[in-house]
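Hi team,

As requested, here is the filled-out complex form for the MGD run. I kept the field names the same as last time so the parser does not choke. Let me know if anything looks off before we queue the next batch.

— J.
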Amino acid sequence: MSDVNDLPKKSGPAGGWGSMRGIKEVLASSRAEPGAFQTLHRQNKPRGFMCTSCAWPKPANYKQFEFCENGAKATLWESTRDRCTPEFWNDHTVTELRSWKDHDVERTGRLTAPLRYDAETDRYVEVGWDEAIAGIAEVLKTLKSDEVVFYSSGHAGLEASYLYALVARLFGTNNLPQSSNMCHETTSVGLKEVIGSPVGTVIWEDLEATDCFFFFGQNPGTNSPRFLHPLKEAKNRGAKIVTFNPLREQGLVSFVDPQNPLHMATGHETIISDQYHQVRAGGDVAAILGICKAVIEADDAAQEKGGARILDVAFIEEHTTGFDAFLDVCRKTQWPDIVRESGLAEEDLRDAAATYMAAERVIGVYGMGLTQHAHGALNIGMLVNLMMLRGNIGRKGAGMCPVRGHSNVQGQRTVGIAEKANLVPMDRLRELFDFDPPTEDGTHIVDAVQGLFDRSIKGFVSLGGNLVRAVPEQARMEDAWAGQEISVMISTKLNRTHLFPAKHAYILPCLSRAERDIQATGNQTISIEDSFSMIHGSIGQRTPASEHLRSEMAIVCALGRALSGDNPKLRWDEWQADYGLVRDLIEATYPDDFGRYNARLHTPGGFWRGIAAHDRIWKTEPGKAIFTAPDRLNSVSFDDMEGRYRLITIRSNDQFNTTIYGYSDRFRGIEGTRDVLLMNEDDMRAAGLAKGDLVALLSDAEDDETRRLGGLAVIPYEIPRGTVASYYPECNVLISIAHHDITSKTPASKSIPVRIERDGEGRERPRM
Ligand SMILES: Nc1nc2c(c(=O)[nH]1)N[C@H]1C(S)=C(S)[C@@H](COP(=O)(O)OP(=O)(O)OC[C@H]3O[C@@H](n4cnc5c(=O)[nH]c(N)nc54)[C@H](O)[C@@H]3O)O[C@H]1N2
Ligand SMILES: Nc1nc2c(c(=O)[nH]1)N[C@H]1C(S)=C(S)[C@@H](COP(=O)(O)OP(=O)(O)OC[C@H]3O[C@@H](n4cnc5c(=O)[nH]c(N)nc54)[C@H](O)[C@@H]3O)O[C@H]1N2
Ligand SMILES: [Mo]
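And here is what came back:
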């Protein structure tokens, strides 16, 4: 661990030699197999394999290296030489492993054989595939259908995901929550509510045509680094970028293109953001309202002078509803309130408005900084309001760009992984498979966790993911998870969730996406959908990490075979042998999205399944896009109070969600540790804290429970007063399960009410 008194260390631009060193370090620490680096050349290219890291689109005109630092890390991490074989358990018990750091648990390497937990010895033991599947089916069949949850993280391809949802429905439940429930569910609900589309409206051509980006709470340098290339190209042609983020994130400040030898040699930096507004956590509603107010004032002035209108009046009249009520709020809200709630100066917001008004085509980009709030859907509604003032949705170079997380998180929803029954064409499923699909809604992840707490949920099947670590209430979650009748984890590596086995617990190890998937008809192609709703084929070529691994598809088919009765329409063997047949089923179920699916599978850049709002078709209740009149100026669920801070939970450059690659958050200058609290220097002074002091965070939620995380070293940081930041997932112990977006139930991980107290040296170190 480095000396925290040296932190933060000054960091260089995003990209550049730093990213090359980052890849090199993971190449060494992941102990990647020979040839792993060559695999990267096939990443994100037609007929190659699609990166398992983020969901950023793969362009048709790909670069020589169409991967980024973090995509490389994800691939190398799965291509490790290390193996967590059944013999590993000769030397370790589950209880012992709980004291290990998450990083070390995953470093044990790729899982190689199916495992069953043996309570007597407190170890996992090897079990044959047939025995595992039969054992799982036997226990699941003793449970009622609504007592079982079929979760998926966003990794598995469209084919396995479609059949996984079918397996759950054949079992009798729509309990199909997904990682997006903790992520962009706010988009699926909030964006859909106002423009009729649960996903973004822009495509690659829009990135190339825009002259302005407004960035709210999305961190491309860390989370979608390939985004930096179109941003750099946009800057080169004179486009403007305006950013709202409590932290000055390096990728939004400057970038050196690692693919440009001259720029690498000379250290040529592209300045990314023209304006950088360090908004308070939860202050975006006020900030956006301020910009809108300034735009409306400018439009009033133009009208008075008889000049051209600033607002796109034709668009507003023809395509929207609710404008007058929104206009009324903009006029009535006073600047001092906007300034207080946003933490930004009136002048700065007027500058942002001027840039917005000067641009012909604007794209609104957002991520977790808007979605993970108690009023996250309102945040999205506000960004849509801003865009609609000048008709910036549904035309070239303009639109909404929510940046999704897991590589196939959006696509899994498209093909039926949905807890809401009305999102799925159940009649088609009935016709295709001759059964009665359940009609009641299933559980959202928040309901599922509540169900674990009150023991109404008794079994969990997890297609990827690490739920015990990813959801709020980690401490209660560990006991509740272990209290189930059965847990089934389909995973590539060991993770913390495996360490809290249910009464019957199985780990089923699967292939990673870069690996060959040989079935009866040969090596199989899978497919995924990216953030721009483009569908890509993906073919693995690497030798599997173990001969005992099965593909996600093979595992899902095995579960389906074991759980469903005789039904000639269920052709598990044939589907497993030829994934193309499953694509035909997907096309039959969703003909508007997947026409000529197999024929178009390898289209460079993917094939587009079409988004109505992109063409100004609004699938909302009134048939128009809806202006939202805000009834509040922030997105948090609690009042400001002496001693209360808003905690944002952040990702480092050296992690993918709960997978911690290492302890270097290069862009933020935090090295060697994750046990830190980033704090404004004036706040530190006011609280009597000095650099390096150890503190504990106490959740200040309005329920009785004390949730505490100790052992954090205070680091002075450029962050607005009243806002503090620390790492996810370590902080999840502080979040109440009831603390979520009011419309979509997405946990409000970016505005957690906390207090700070001094922590004694050595007292209760956080576990990682
Ligand atoms: N390397 C890497 N890549 C990833 C992931 C990873 O963990 N590591 N995770 C993947 C997943 S699943 C997802 S969902 C995406 C997540 O990618 P992002 O959407 O970028 O998510 P975060 O990094 O959690 O937060 C984004 C930004 O929001 C800012 N922020 C916090 N609170 C506020 C606020 O109130 N207002 C505003 N305007 N900004 C705020 C934070 O400072 C941060 O810069 O990335 C995906 N890609
Ligand atoms: N406080 C706080 N909490 C958060 C967030 C936050 O910003 N702050 N972010 C939330 C977000 S955006 C998300 S998406 C969730 C993430 O929640 P999850 O999706 O549940 O978690 P991951 O860490 O992505 O899952 C990692 C595990 O997936 C398995 N895995 C990896 N690759 C594969 C594969 O190809 N196939 C299969 N079957 N398994 C694989 C590995 O075993 C690995 O251990 O966390 C959420 N929690
Ligand atoms: Mo996510």
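Two things worth flagging: The radius of gyration is 25 Å. Residues 53-54, 70, 183, 216-219, 222-223, 244-247, 249, 279, 281-282, 284, 367-369, 403, 405-406, 648, 650-651, 655-657, 750 surround MGD (ligand 1) (CB under 6 Å).

Thanks,
J.
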